[in-house]
Amino acid sequence: MRRFVAGRVSLEKHFRLWRRSFSQRAQNKASGQENDVVLPKMPHFDYSPPPYDGPSAAEVLQKRKKYLSPSMFCFYNQPVNIVEGKMQYLFDENGRRYVDAFGGIATVNCGHCHPDVADAIVKQINRLQHSTVLYLNHAIADFAEALASKMPGDLKVVFFTNSGTEANELAMMMARQYTGCNDIVSLRNAYHGNAAGTMGATAQRIWKFNVIQTGVHHALNPDPYRGIFGSDGEKYAKDVQDLIDYGTSGHVAAFISEAIQGVGGIVELAPGYLPAVYSSIKKAGGLFIADEVQCGFARTGSHFWGFESQGVVPDIVTMAKGIGNGIPLGAVVTTPEIAEVLTRRNYFNTFGGNPVCTAAGHAVLKVIEKEKLQENAFVVGSYLKERLLSLKDKYEIIGDVRGKGLMLGVELVTDRKLKTPANVEVLHIMDQMKEMGVLVGKGGFYGNVFRITPPLCFTKEDADFFVDVMDYTMSKM
Known about the structure:
Elements: H1 2-30, H2 57-67, E1 82-86, E2 89-92, E3 97-100, H3 103-106, H4 115-127, H5 138-148, E4 157-161, H6 164-179, E5 184-187, H7 196-201, E6 216-219, H8 233-247, E7 254-257, E8 260-261, E9 267-268, H9 273-283, E10 287-291, E11 316-319, E12 330-334, H10 336-339, H11 355-370, H12 373-394, E13 398-404, E14 407-415, E15 420-421, H13 423-435, E16 438-439, E17 441-443, E18 449-452, H14 460-475
Parallel strand pairs: 3-16, 5-6, 5-7, 7-10, 10-11
Antiparallel strand pairs: 1-2, 2-3, 4-12, 8-9, 11-12, 13-14, 14-15, 14-18, 17-18
Helix pairs in contact: 1-13, 4-11, 5-11, 8-9, 12-14
């Protein structure tokens, strides 16, 4: 942990020095020319927030430093104090509007404070905030039925949790209980959570503490951009078979993966990878766990679930984030046969299936369908990706543009041939884009990938503004 903090401090120091040098160069270059530039204009939005009379950004930051964990860090040199949200926009303490291109880390699918979701929450919280799943209540049963209807095959049994980490922990335990095996295969560059079991399945050093993590084998990441086999999914899949042959008894509990790695930098698995791996895992007696925490709930546009793009049907599906539009909610969906393993002992979750959370989740499904958000994610996401690809043609610093729907990544490099990560430049561009009214995430193993995961109500006008701001910022470098 100390090494990570020291590394982060070093990077921030490097960034401050680079930014000072960049500012001096930019000032000299732009002198006498700035008046000729037309700045991108944010799309019209018929809403203005009421005056904010709460604590200032400085006061919030002071309290945060004093009372919250020092592991919590902020984006930006001057952290933004977000006090209100409306659909695809966020507002700071001064009433300034921002285009939210991060969506609370791929979480706010329907839009901030969507009236249908908010209304469902308020109605339920006024009726019954919490009891226990030991009593009957229609909210949890109604949502489970609606969620099961969105699943393929025999995936019909739902277990509700509070987060993606918790959902993945439960899925891994169920696979081990069902198969009688302990070994699980995950991918390098994966992120599946930060608890004891899921930290083992995670494969990026900055997310792994020095605790016992056993029984997980990490296969080559089928990364079309940085991987050794390019886009040949079947060649990467051979490594999974090798892990089974040389690292296990020949039998495994499960293979777990995202269809598009979120924290890992919006990495789409190489085409044909999952079907080939699925075959190897099945021969070894294992289950396939699809982690849909980030790419589920229509985000990829072409499909409701990310795994569908590779033509496979998992044995267990985990989900969170977009399931509740920001409400703490997760779920594990599996078959009746696999679900039976939890009857061998008592399994209980105090807040999993809470009536307020499940009412929110049910409302989210209805909004996605009513407002055709999957179709919007496909149409607007495809348009946004095309515009980003045009930026790649314009700027050498963009090494790759990837993803599907409204789950897109832009990887920055200082050398396209060597693919040298441009992590310092990413920080500068993020900061400048924030100053112009755009909030975007970053990720990837090297921290050099823009993670573009806005609410699914994002419009083409928002996409144009986003790309125009990025274009303007890069033109000044």
